[in-house]
Design brief:
eight-stranded mixed sheet; 306 residues; binds magnesium ion; binds guanosine-5'-triphosphate; alpha/beta
Length: 306
């Protein structure tokens, strides 16, 4: 079978394109003339810009303090030099070297988040990515809220050419995960990715449902490396911290997938999430296609942001 491959701009180019609103509109203007002097006005403009880009108040202040200290200590002459320093500071804030997935072992990725953020789409992209890397992913359609949800995931499973386990509409999502684990075991897979229904983080009963799924995973696959990824929509950045706290309490988050960066001026939310919650950003979504997910790289991201 011939695979149709459109010539697409590279992922970094697409990320930059997405973040160009941030760059051109906010941060770009400040660094527009790199030979300009660093003065109080510069710091004020930068503060506004970082807050507008969703870096959050606390994180913005921390970043500015660090930048001021570096400008002083290293006697940085102009805005161009300050920009280089800021890229390094942002990179440091977002870097994380905890390993993702266990090579040669069992792995589970549980995907959670509020409605419509891009959970199912990201799972399709992940399955395709890891399959291409030689792993054997399997999907669990634990969004049983609507029949269409399992259908949507099935389309992605077909595209990525990976097996999927699903039940009927209204079934217990934890039971789907239970069955998926049984099938996962019998077929010698090495990565189980579980979709879940979108839910508001302040709905207690829905959050308890996630706790139950998590318990099933821990009980049935006690040796597995478990990643619980919260999917955040970059275009609605503000609420990210509250969401992450609530989801963490119900099912123990290990990281973030930030989607829809191709259409937003709010890329800074990743800086806030990492800084305030210590949760690493694992992947970023830069489009709707199967290849539009990339592992997060702090250096490229901070460069693209500025
Ligand atoms: N532009 C863009 N669109 C995206 C991205 N990720 C997802 N989408 C789109 O966002 C919409 C919602 O995606 P889903 O994957 O269905 O979201 P979900 O979180 O599973 O939604 P629920 O299951 O209803 O809670 C779809 O139209 C996707 O194509 C992205 O990185 N960029
Ligand atoms: Mg979904």
């Amino acid at each position: 079978m011939e695979k149709k491959k459109e010539k697409k701009p590279g992922l970094f180019a697409r990320l930059k394109e997405g973040l160009s609103k941030t760059r051109g509109g906010l941060l770009g203007a400040i660094f527009g003339n790199s030979e300009e002097k660093i003065n109080d006005e510069f710091y004020e403009e930068l503060e506004d810009a970082l807050i507008m880009a969703d870096c959050g108040f606390e994180t913005t202040e921390e970043i500015l303090d660090k930048l001021r200290a570096q400008v002083k200590a290293e006697k940085l002459p102009d805005r161009g030099a300050a920009k280089e320093a800021l890229i390094r500071i942002l990179e440091e804030h977002m870097s994380d070297d905890t390993p993702f997935l266990a090579e040669g072992g069992d792995n589970v990725i549980l995907i959670v988040g509020v409605n419509g953020v891009g959970k199912t789409t990201s799972i399709g992209k992940l399955a395709s990515m890891y399959k291409a890397e030689g792993m054997h992913p399997m999907l669990a359609a634990a969004d049983t809220f609507r029949a269409a949800a399992a259908e949507q995931l099935t389309v992605w499973a077909e595209r990525a050419d990976v097996p999927i386990i699903k039940h009927g509409e209204g079934a217990d999502p934890a039971a789907v995960v239970f069955d998926a684990i049984a099938s996962y075991r019998s077929k010698k897979n090495d990565l189980l990715i579980c979709d879940t229904a979108g839910r508001l983080h302040n709905k207690k009963n829905l959050m308890n449902e996630l706790s139950k799924i998590r318990r099933v995973i821990d009980r049935e696959l006690p040796e597995a490396h478990v990643e619980v990824l919260l999917v955040l929509d970059a275009t609605t950045g503000q609420n990210a911290i509250a969401q992450a706290k609530a989801f963490s309490e119900s099912c123990g988050l290990t990281g973030i997938i930030l989607t829809k960066l191709d259409g937003t001026a709010k890329g800074g939310v990743v800086v806030a999430v990492k800084n305030e919650l210590g949760l690493p950003i694992r992947f970023i979504g830069v489009g709707e296609g199967i290849e539009d997910l990339q592992p997060f790289d702090a250096r490229s991201f901070s460069e693209a942001l500025l």
